Amino acid sequence: MTEIRRHSVHNIDEIRKRTASEHRNSENPPLVLLLLMGTEFDQEQNRHEVPLLLQLRGQLYDVAKFAKKHPGGEKVLRKLAGGDVDAFMRGEQRILGVKHEHSAAAYAMLERYNVEHLQKNDPYLDEKRGVLGRIGNLGADYWTWIHQPYEGTIRLFDSDFLERLTRTAWWVVPLVWMPLVVLFSALGITELHQNHGAFVASVVWGVLFSIGVLTWTLVEYLLHRYVFHWHPDTSSQTQIVLHFLIHGLHHKTPMDGDRLVFPPTPALFIIIFFASIYVSILPWAAFCCFGAGKLCGYVMYDCTHYYLHHGSPKPGSDMHYKKVYHHNHHFKNYDLLGFRRKYGIMYLRRDELHRLFGQMLLRYFLNEKGERVYTLKKTSPEGAQTHSAHPAKFSPEDKYSQYRVIVKKRFHLLPSQQAKIVY
Fold first, then answer.
1. Where, by residue number, does the polypeptide cross the bilayer (predicted)?
2. 32 Cβ partners below 8 Å, 6+ apart?
3. 330-345 pLDDT, tens per residue?
């Protein structure tokens, strides 16, 4: 094994480079190689890793390559993924029941994984050159690259004119599309009123408009789940470019405010395409009401998405919950499987589904600390109902995370019973 005594940082870097070169193709590299971070071995063996991001003092660190070598175990880093680790590294908070104050050497080691440092010499982040014609060259490194968020903006085209077409202020979306929502609603209501009267017209419009909004919610989820998060073949430059345009750019620059909403120009062609389908299968009045609702759902989605990135919702509110979860979608659970994957922006949480289907009627209010206090309502005329509980967790990203159902046993939901469930 390569011997290490007291060396300057410069000499250690030389040893790291020499050892990495000697054991590049070794299946069992020496321990020293595993201990010296940032080696070529790391880069080659882990180039397909999905980033594991931590935040410290306003900086992002991608520790995916270090996770398995972490002295406290990989599980600790996975638990903290996407969050601020300052208090944990200073030994002020427990993680998995343990407090540990990290040394200066640990902080220095962490700096090797500073995303900002990694991006300083990244040719794909050159703001003077369009990246679209070069992005396919990333090949196998593409998936890792797009999931290392960049806080700035990326130039797509060399042409200033084309570049401007890719940038849209959030208020342009409601300004362009809401007049159409009002227009088609008016057209639908007018025809229904002429044929069936005012009452029927208002009821039918309300039903079809709501169905349109719900249809968009479903479409948005399916698009995000199966199209936006499609895994391209990284050996195909065409697939890489296509994925980058569809959604990869957003994950690379999640805070670029000019690229959070969909530009009206390409959106117009998509809207015309779907409108031609709906108008061919629905009566004109039904199409107007349904189409207005679906278009309104899209506007709500785009504005909500922008707010989740740049808004400041009240802590403990529903919008705060969604902001935290969407933050983790970008910085933590890029491809987490399951119902709570939350690909979509406009979704129903599990407690809302419980209310919808009558399995559990939960009502809550916010106390003075911004915590949710749930009141468990009776669900039967007899005044009580036995319910089999299951310990479904709240989203782990919230610092007040607790178990949604406190005990795993059968219990009675009495009219006056309250359970304080904090998150």
1. 169-190, 197-219, 267-290
2. 1, 2, 4, 15, 19
3. 766 665 433 334 455 5
Q: CA 276, CA 92: separation in Å to the nearest integer?
A: 60
pLDDT at residue 317 is higher than 90? no
Which tokens go with 379?
Answer: 């669900």
Length of the chain: 423
Is the separation of the CB atoms in 23 and 30 below 8 Å?
Answer: yes
Region of 84 please: left (phi>0), alpha (psi -120 to 50) or beta: beta
Q: What is the pLDDT of residues 71-125, one digit of tens each?
A: 667 787 888 887 888 888 888 888 777 677 777 767 767 887 777 776 666 777 7
Which of 68, 78, 149, 66 is CA-nearest to residue 108? 66
For residue 61, what is the enclosing H or E element? strand 59-62
Entry pTM: 0.60
Confirm if 232 and 240 have CB atoms less than 8 A apart.
Answer: yes
Q: Are 335 and 229 in contact (CB under 8 A)?
A: yes
pLDDT digits (tens, 9 = 90+) for 8-52: 334 434 544 554 455 444 444 443 333 333 333 344 433 446 778
Q: Strand 410-412 relative to strand 53-56: parallel, antiparallel, unpaired?
A: unpaired
Confidence of residue 209 (pLDDT cuts 50, 70, 90): very high
Collapsed DSSP state (helix, strand, coil) of residue 151: coil
CA distance 139 to 136: 6
3-state secondary structure of 345: coil
Among 51, 54, 240, 230, residue whose Cα is nearest residue 140: 240
Determine the 3-state secondary structure of 213 from DSSP.
helix
Structure-block tokens of residue 404: 């949604």
CA–CA distances in Å: residue 191 to residues 203, 206, 283, 291, 374: 13, 14, 11, 15, 46
Domains of the chain: 9-124 (3.10.120.10), 160-341 (no CATH), 350-419 (no CATH)
Burial class (CB in 10 A: 0-12, 13-18, 19+), 380: exposed
Residue 224: both structure tokens together: 């995000």
Burial pattern 65-83, b for ≥16 Cβ within 10 A else e, equals bbbeeeeeeeebbeebbbb
Distance separating alpha carbons of residues 55 and 87, to the nearest angstrom: 11
